[in-house]
Design goal:
The protein has 445 residues and is an alpha/beta fold. The protein contains 18 helices and 12 strands. It has a 7-stranded mixed beta sheet with strand order 9-8-7-6-10-11-12, sandwiched between helices. Bound molecules: NADPH dihydro-nicotinamide-adenine-dinucleotide phosphate and (2Z)-2-iminopentanedioic acid (2IT). NADPH dihydro-nicotinamide-adenine-dinucleotide phosphate (NDP) binds next to helix 10.
């Protein structure tokens, strides 16, 4: 790492003890900025990089609610408003028992560069709670969301901070959150949240956008190598929002998804995942992935080992951070995988990324490959601001163009800064320059 950046990183370690995921995300970005610092001393002279590593505002709050048994439950809520140089803070809410400040900060930090890469006017932020929705009734989820919003509402707004979904937060939760916001503020302020239902201000394609966008990105990577999805075996981890719509688009483009997973195990299905069945099990019944295998003759469930041990040409991790470690990366390479595109945020450890680089696997980081979700959120904000709603086809077309633009910008920037072919260097530098130039223009704030 460049000496000046090492100083910034040391300061981040010292100021944010115990937040290992945040350290990892910062390290990954700073490690690729060396050539920028050499070319543009103004970024270090004006402490732009140090300012970028300190959130503008961090909110931590109590979320009390009453469960179905009448017991009072207490969770912790977070919103980290990381950077608003390019637009209102924008980023999802994650409800998962593993959530703590370090996770929210890593996600918020990544979001700054991802959102900058989309070219749309959105800053970076993230939030969530250590609430575990698994096994909770509809009533419990609703009361939790209402309590969460009873504090969050004072910090957000269409010009201030615009949350959306992430792990454990989908249209159902956004509905309860929006309902409570509307009730407290007495305002039908559609643009305060994205990922809304179509009949109450949502955008067509937002549900599909992260998965579709990741696959559009892979399609561009394939085109760049004079190749296509035709007959490619693909493994997608997870079976939530991002995974399901990644699978749908891979199948539309001629690939075959042969495995997917959830936190209880994985299924292999060499005939290709039956998406109608997967949606029924996961979206309608909110069931476990094992139930898919129980109803599908060609599928097998395993709770031993990892979905990344299944042979594939293309890997699309779409579950969670650090799900591919060094050993699993080695396994993927040995099994013939040549493209890895991150639907999830930071699913590959730094060691795994190094394995991919050494093996010349084309590797697209989440902040580039999964930017279609937040980009379509920004399209939802545009529709809300103009009180309009666009049709599916033209919205999907815009998503596809945005992903294509990000793909090309990554490669052009990587070329310009001496790292040809590196999507991660290109993504970090292009995102960094966009947000840093805005910060320089806005002065020391
Ligand atoms: P969902 O909650 O819809 O699905 C998450 C999936 O990942 C589930 O199958 C879940 O299994 C699995 N999973 C979650 N945590 C773990 C874990 N610790 N170990 C193993 N499996 C796990 O979330 P999304 O699909 O929305 O999000 C998936 C990833 O994509 C996340 O990294 C998120 O940050 C990222 N992302 C999401 C975007 C969006 O628009 N939703 C946009 C960009 C990125 P189980 O149900 O068993 O927990
Ligand atoms: O990680 C992400 O980009 C998201 N969870 C989506 C954020 C958004 O505001 O749509």
């Amino acid at each position: 790492m460049h000496e000046k950046l090492r100083d910034v990183y040391d300061e981040v370690l010292q100021r944010n003890p115990g937040e290992s995921e945040f350290h990892q995300a910062v390290h990954e970005v700073l490690d690729s900025l060396g050539p920028v610092v050499d070319k543009h001393p103004e970024y270090t002279d004006s402490a732009v990089i140090r300012r970028l590593c300190e959130p503008e505002r961090q909110i931590i709050f109590r979320v009390p609610w009453v469960d179905d048994a009448g017991e009072v439950q207490i969770n912790r809520g977070f919103r980290v408003e990381f950077n608003s140089a390019l637009g209102p803070f924008k980023g999802g809410l994650r409800f998962h028992p593993s959530v703590y400040l370090g996770i929210v900060k890593f996600l918020g930090y990544e979001q700054i560069f991802k959102n900058a890469l989309t070219g749309l006017p959105i800053g970076g932020g993230k939030g969530g709670s250590d609430f575990d929705p698994k096994g909770r009734s509809e009533g419990e989820v609703m009361r939790f969301c209402q309590s969460f919003m009873t504090e969050l509402y004072r910090h957000i707004g269409e010009y201030t901070d615009v949350p959306a979904g992430d792990i454990g937060v989908g249209e159902r939760e956004v509905g309860y959150l929006f309902g409570q916001y509307k009730r407290i503020t007495n305002r039908y302020e559609s643009g305060v949240l994205t990922g809304k239902g179509i009949s109450w201000g949502g955008s067509l394609v937002r549900t599909e956008a992260t998965g579709y966008g990741t696959v559009f990105f892979v399609e561009k990577m394939l085109e760049h190598r004079d190749d296509s999805f035709d007959g490619k075996r693909v493994v997608v981890s997870g079976s939530g929002n991002v995974a399901i719509y990644a699978i749908e688009k891979v199948h539309e483009l001629g690939g075959v998804v042969v495995a997917c997973s959830d936190s209880s195990g994985f299924v292999t299905d060499q005939e290709g995942i039956d998406l109608d069945l997967l949606k029924e099990v996961k979206e309608v019944q909110r069931g476990r992935i094992e139930e898919y295998a129980e109803q599908r003759g060609s599928a097998e469930f395993s709770d031993n080992g990892s979905v990344w041990e299944v042979a594939c040409d293309i890997a699309i991790p779409a579950a969670t951070q650090n799900e591919i470690d060094e050993d699993l990366a080695v396994r993927l390479v040995k099994n013939g995988c040549t493209i890895v595109a991150e639907g999830a945020n930071m699913p590959a450890t730094p060691e795994a990324v190094q394995v991919f680089a050494d093996a010349e696997v084309a590797y697209a980081p989440g902040k580039a490959a999964n930017a279609g979700g937040v980009a379509t959120s920004a399209l939802e904000m545009q529709q809300n601001a103009s009180r309009d709603s666009w049709d599916f086809g033209s919205t999907e077309e815009r998503l596809s163009r945005i992903m294509s633009g990000i793909h090309d910008r990554c490669l052009e920037t990587a070329d310009a800064y001496g790292a040809p072919g590196s999507y991660s260097t290109g993504a970090n530098i292009a995102g960094f320059i966009k947000v840093s130039d805005a910060m320089l223009a806005l002065g020391v704030i």
